[in-house]
Amino acid sequence: LHDNCVVCERLEISEAKDHLNENDQLVMLANGSRESSVSIMESDERPEPSRTAISRLCKHCGTCEDEDKRFLICGHSQCPYKYYHIRCLKTSQIASFQKQNNHCWYCPSCLCRACFLDRDDDLIVLCDGCDEAYHTYCMKPPRSSIPKGYWYCLQCNV
């Protein structure tokens, strides 16, 4: 679905140091794997989910889902975050769910926040301030190429 996706290609999993509890026992996750962190991807490895995705915690507030705090789940197969409380998202971030005629919602890090379209993944740039994604041609002003170094969206650049 997202072959040659620039956003996905920028993700890399680096093994976190083994965590020991107070009894010097290795702490393992529920699925039996060690906890990992996300950084830049250099190979064809698929990114592993973050701690919040593995533990089914909201990426924004870090708490679990309950009756008063329902999740929207990112439909991107390689999203490292996955879970977002509806109440933790801005209306514009939820709008992509209503604009699409399918049962799939993409989180702010996986879908252009300007046009809400899942296309041209090689032209997507993540804001270094808030992790929201934008196509280069949807930026204000539009860009013809991926910026080198840090890039900030209009909200974070203020």
Automatic annotation (TrEMBL):
Matches recorded under PROSITE patterns: ZF_PHD_1, ZF_PHD_2
GO MF annotation: an example: zinc ion binding
Boundaries of every PHD-type domain copy: 101-158
InterPro entries: Zinc_finger_PHD-type_CS (IPR019786), Znf_FYVE_PHD (IPR011011), Znf_PHD (IPR001965), Znf_PHD-finger (IPR019787), Znf_RING/FYVE/PHD (IPR013083)
Matching SMART domains: PHD
Key words of the record: Metal-binding, Zinc, Zinc-finger
PANTHER family for the chain: OS02G0192300 PROTEIN, PHD FINGER PROTEIN EHD3-LIKE
Protein name, entry field: Transcription factor
Lineage, opening ranks: Eukaryota, Viridiplantae, Streptophyta, Embryophyta, Tracheophyta
